[in-house]
Amino acid sequence: MLTNMTRQSQKPTPRFDREVCIACTMCAGICPTGVIGLEIRNSARGFRRFPVLTDEKRCIGCKACEQDCPSGAIQMGSI
Ligand code: SF4
Ligand code: SF4
User: Fold this and answer.
1) pTM of the model
2) Atom of ligand 2 nearest to the CA of 71
3) Which residue has its alpha carbon closest to ligand 1 atom 4?
């Protein structure tokens, strides 16, 4: 019971689709809590800075990153 309540109260956090992400870094810049970091990774277009959620607990679930992503690479979800 407690487990179900805990799950229901969890806020959604962003999931990044690296196949779709164009590594524009906009989400990291717009996040009001600064919780999106950037990691250098290799891709089909060479080494780029891709977003990662550095601390899920500090995300406030505002969806600004999802709404402003130009490629639709972010979807909000819960564990
Ligand atoms: S939902 Fe809001 S707080 Fe969470 S990572 Fe996206 S922009 Fe940052
Ligand atoms: S805004 Fe979208 S396309 Fe740009 S780095 Fe973030 S996830 Fe990738």
Assistant:
1) 0.87
2) 3
3) 59
- Helix or strand holding residue 64 (H, E): helix 64-68
Residue nearest to atom 3 of ligand 1 (CA): 59
Give CA–CA dist 13/60, Å, rounded.
Answer: 8
Protein residue with least CA distance to atom 2, ligand 2: 69
In tens, the pLDDT along 46-56 reads: 999 999 999 99
CATH code, 2-77: 3.30.70.20
Which of 67, 54, 70 minimizes the C-alpha distance to 20? Answer: 70
**Annotated domain spans of the chain:** 2-77
C-beta of residue 72 within 8 angstroms of C-beta of residue 18 = no
pLDDT tens profile 2-43: 444 445 457 899 999 999 999 999 999 999 999 999 999 998
